[in-house]
């Protein structure tokens, strides 16, 4: 896990030989984070030149920022869902969330992060696509945070990357700043139903204990708050 002032990214390594290990980056931090990411990769004894792909869970600046610079430097492929790809490329504006009152100051703070530059997308993803890492990583479309938000599920390893659909800041909860809260709740429940052993969030510490039960309870709670009747 690579921590940034706002949010985090994840590095997945396939193989035990640092000289041959294929690397996948899940999200890419803020603009300007490329040197920090490269330094982290090298600190693990790995070669940034082995970065094969950057999978973007959605189009927000704190997830896309360094993807273009890293891809240009190391030849990595950039992947994003079809519905968020035009935003990543800069062809459409970033969608505005429907904010709850308590989210407004948090959202304003997030806007202090550098704006992500337009970034190429080499492959547009769809729900159910299988990616060539982690023994077959499955794309899970989970709209609501943005229209093209995705989770990345590695069933062979019991690992789920949730993007910002789910957050783990203080407690496991529905992610904030959603364009469609009802859709986000439904997506949360879909991700919880995958019953991973480890859940890696876009914000907050990964969940590594009683993961399936905690996710399910949090998703059910989010559904009840969204529909108190």
Which terms would index this structure?
23% strand; 229 residues; 5-stranded mixed beta sheet; 6-stranded mixed beta sheet; 7 helices; alpha/beta; 13 strands
Can you describe this structure?
- The chain is of the alpha/beta class and 229 residues long.
- A hairpin with a 7-residue loop joins strand 2 and strand 3.
- The model has no long low-confidence stretch (mean pLDDT 95).
- The chain starts with a strand and ends with a helix.
- It has a six-stranded mixed sheet with strand order 1-2-3-4-5-6. A five-stranded mixed sheet has the order 7-8-9-10-13, with no helix packed on it.
- 27% of the residues lie in helices and 23% in strands.
- The protein is globular and about 50 Å long.
- It has seven helices and 13 strands.
- 43% of the residues are buried.
Q: Name the beta content range.
A: 15-25%
Fraction of residues in helix: 25-40%
- Major sheet details: 6 strands, mixed
Return the string of H and E elements: EEEHEHHEHHEEEEEEEHEH
Q: Count of DSSP E strands?
A: 13
Describe the secondary structure blueprint for this structure.
Layout: E1 2-3, E2 8-14, E3 22-26, H1 34-43, E4 51-55, H2 61-64, H3 67-74, E5 77-81, H4 85-89, H5 104-110, E6 123-125, E7 130-131, E8 137-141, E9 150-154, E10 159-163, E11 166-167, E12 173-174, H6 181-192, E13 198-201, H7 211-226
Parallel strand pairs: 3-4, 4-5, 5-6, 10-13
Antiparallel strand pairs: 1-2, 2-3, 7-8, 8-9, 9-10, 11-12
Concise overview:
The chain is α/β, with parallel strands linked by helices and 229 residues long. It has helices at residues 34-43, 61-64, 67-74, 85-89, 104-110, 181-192, 211-226, and strands spanning 2-3, 8-14, 22-26, 51-55, 77-81, 123-125, 130-131, 137-141, 150-154, 159-163, 166-167, 173-174, 198-201. The chain contains 7 helices and 13 strands.
């Amino acid at each position: 896990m690579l921590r940034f002032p706002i949010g985090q990214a994840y590095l997945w390594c396939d193989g035990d030989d640092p000289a041959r290990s294929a690397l996948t980056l899940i999200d890419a931090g803020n603009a300007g984070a490329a040197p920090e990411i490269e330094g982290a990769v090298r600190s693990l004894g790995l070669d940034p030149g082995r970065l094969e792909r950057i999978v973007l869970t959605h189009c927000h600046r704190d997830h896309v920022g360094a993807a273009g610079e890293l891809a240009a430097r190391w030849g990595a492929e950039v992947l994003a869902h079809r519905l968020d790809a035009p935003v990543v490329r800069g062809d459409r504006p970033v969608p505005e969330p429907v904010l709850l009152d308590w989210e407004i100051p948090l959202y304003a703070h997030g806007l202090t992060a550098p704006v992500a530059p337009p970034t190429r997308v080499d492959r547009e993803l769809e729900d159910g696509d299988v990616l060539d890492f982690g023994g077959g990583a499955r794309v899970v479309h989970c709209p609501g945070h943005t229209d093209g938000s995705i989770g990345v599920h590695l069933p062979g390893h019991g690992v789920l990357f949730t993007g910002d659909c789910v957050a783990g800041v203080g407690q496991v909860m529905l992610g904030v700043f959603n364009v469609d809260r009802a859709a986000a709740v439904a997506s949360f429940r879909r991700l919880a139903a995958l019953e991973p052993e480890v859940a890696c969030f876009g914000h907050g510490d990964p969940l590594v204990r009683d993961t399936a039960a905690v996710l399910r309870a949090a998703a059910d709670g989010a559904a009840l708050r969204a529909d108190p009747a």
